[in-house]
Amino acid sequence: MYLSKIKLFLAISTCLIFFFLTYNDVRSNENNVISGKAIVTDGDSIKISGNKIRFSGIDSPEIYYRGKKQQCTFDKVKVYCGYWSKIILIEKINNNIVSCIKEDEADQYNRILAECFVKEESLSKYLVRSGYAFAYRRYSKKFVEDEEYAKTNKLGLWQTEFQFPWEFRKSVRN
């Protein structure tokens, strides 16, 4: 009888230790995820519950930067290509819940850097592969293949004459 009480105690103790170890892992993963209804602010940024989130590894044309709107030329007509990216993102998210996996560091504007998903599909990958955002090679090589696909197939902004967003920002600063 005494031996079976010891075995029971050991079994319960082992289960409790396992529970607490896995519980902490689950909680730490929960701290790295933000989910909810998103408000699209531009082609690579959203807000969820007041949290400003910038998609890591990609860059989209600027809607408004230092008093200027980024333009592209499509069929000899100047268009505000930052709005195109924003509209594509709004349509993709639709009314769905967005889940974002946060990176450890914020960006220079104190926005959360994250990769965000709708129905397990990466919004960053979707935007780049559709041609409405670009792989931000300075920070990541993750979406380079998707950009090459869009460029080769002349999708989205690859049908236009454009400046990369980082070049546009640099030209406005100078």
Could you name the key traits of this structure?
174 residues, alpha+beta, OB fold (Dihydrolipoamide Acetyltransferase, E2P), 2 domains, 5-stranded mixed β-barrel, two-stranded antiparallel ribbon, 10 strands, globular
CATH class of the largest domain, named Mainly Beta
Shape: globular
Give me the oligomer status: single chain
- Any idea how many domains? 2
Mean pLDDT: 88
| Physical arrangement of strands within the biggest beta sheet | 1-2-3-8-7
SSE blueprint and pairings:
Blueprint: H1 2-31, E1 33-42, E2 45-48, E3 51-55, E4 58-59, E5 71-74, E6 77-80, H2 81-93, E7 97-106, E8 112-118, E9 121-122, H3 123-130, E10 134-135, H4 144-152, H5 165-173
Parallel strand pairs: 3-8
Antiparallel strand pairs: 1-2, 1-7, 2-3, 4-10, 5-6, 7-8, 8-9
Helix pairs in contact: 3-4
Write a brief caption for the model.
With 174 residues, the chain is of the alpha+beta class.
Describe what this molecule looks like in 3D.
The chain has 174 residues and is of the alpha+beta class. It has two domains: 1-31; 32-173, Beta Barrel (OB fold (Dihydrolipoamide Acetyltransferase, E2P)). The chain contains five helices and ten strands. The protein has helices at residues 2-31, 81-93, 123-130, 144-152, 165-173; strands spanning 33-42, 45-48, 51-55, 58-59, 71-74, 77-80, 97-106, 112-118, 121-122, 134-135. Strands 1-2-3-8-7 form a five-stranded mixed barrel. The radius of gyration is 22 Å and the shape is globular. It starts with a helix and ends with a helix. Residues 13-28 have low confidence and may be disordered.
